[in-house]
Structure formats: structure tokens, C-alpha cells
Design a protein that fits this description.
Blueprint (H helix, E strand, L loop, with lengths): L1 E2 L2 E7 L4 E5 L6 E5 L8 E5 L4 E6 L3 E6 L2 E7 L4 E7 L2 E6 L15 E2 L2 E2 L6 E7 L4 E8 L2 E7 L2 E6 L4 E4 L1
Antiparallel strand pairs: 1-2, 2-3, 3-4, 5-6, 6-7, 7-8, 9-10, 10-13, 11-12, 13-14, 15-16, 16-17
Length: about 160
């Protein structure tokens, strides 16, 4: 990660978030003792800064080389975290996001009600204004990809969603 003409490498494990300042030394600096599951971290770049986001059981945390800078409380087991444009896409495996409930456009996939499936929630968060811009129940997500300006959600049942 390039920040103020310095090169940093962020590292996450299940137990910690660390970084290495590549140009000064190869010493590992632990900046938080809370890590994350695989696929639950992402680099988020905007015009002025580069940030590293980590989604753990209790929150969505943001890091720079200075340490943790902001925290968005989102409880629950996370599945994926990806960034695109000014947004973060996050999946919650367990539980429901407090304060939100189910009036969604589609309530079934291939004729099976979502309430009968092992579903998770997919959230889109606008990082600039900390606004939850999209929330939806979906069955098992295999992956999330950002390609040519669109976000695609690949499901285990063989379906593909495009978030517009």
C-alpha cells in the first residue's frame, strides 16, 4: 500500500492485523489483536487515502499505517468483504443485521423461500457517508467480483446477481 511515498504491506490472520513498512525494515508491527476470517479483508482506495478494511465478528474496522482509524459496528459472522468505487460489499453468515427486516423484492430463489434456506445477508455500505445502501437475504455466496464497473454475486445454487 502506498501512503505518503511509503510502501506498506498489511497482513491479517485469525488473531491479528499487522503491517510491514517495506522501505524501512522488514519488522512486523501488530496494530490490532483482532483478526478476521479469510476473504474478510480488502484494500479501499480513494483520491486522498488508502485504507485496509477488516470485517470480524463484532465490527468492520478500518486501518492505515497509523493503526485503527474507524469502526462500523456490524455484529455477526462475516463471509466476504470486497470494495468497489466508494462502496464496500459485505456478507453476514449468521444472524440478521439489527434494525433491518425483510421487505425484499424477491423472497425466493428457484421457488424455494429464503426463509427455508440457509441464507445470509449481503450489504452494500457507502464509505463516504457511512450509509447502508443495500441489504438483501441470499443463499450461500461462492464469491463476489467487481468487473468493468459492476458487482457480481455468485451463488452456490448456480445463480448470478449483478448489483447495479
Amino acid at each position: 500500500m502506498k501512503e505518503d511515498e511509503s510502501l506498506f504491506l498489511f497482513i491479517t490472520t485469525l488473531e491479528s492485523v499487522s503491517y510491514i513498512h517495506i522501505q524501512k525494515s522488514l519488522d512486523v508491527s501488530i496494530i490490532d489483536s483482532i483478526g478476521c476470517n479469510p476473504k474478510c479483508c480488502t484494500i479501499f482506495e480513494n483520491k486522498s487515502t488508502v485504507e485496509f478494511y477488516v470485517a470480524n465478528e463484532s465490527a468492520l474496522n478500518c486501518y492505515t499505517s497509523a493503526g485503527r482509524t474507524k469502526c462500523i459496528p456490524i455484529p455477526g459472522e462475516k463471509g466476504f468483504l470486497k470494495s468497489f468505487k466508494n462502496n464496500l460489499v459485505l456478507t453476514l453468515k449468521s444472524g440478521k443485521l439489527a434494525g433491518f427486516s425483510g421487505n425484499f423484492i424477491n423472497t425466493s430463489i428457484k421457488g424455494v423461500p429464503l426463509s427455508k434456506m440457509d441464507s445470509l445477508q449481503i450489504l452494500t455500505i457507502d464509505d463516504k457517508v457511512k450509509y447502508l445502501s443495500f441489504i438483501r437475504d441470499v443463499p450461500d455466496v461462492i464469491d463476489i467480483a467487481y468487473i468493468w464497473g459492476s458487482v457480481y454475486v455468485f451463488l452456490a445454487c448456480g445463480q448470478l446477481y449483478e448489483l447495479i
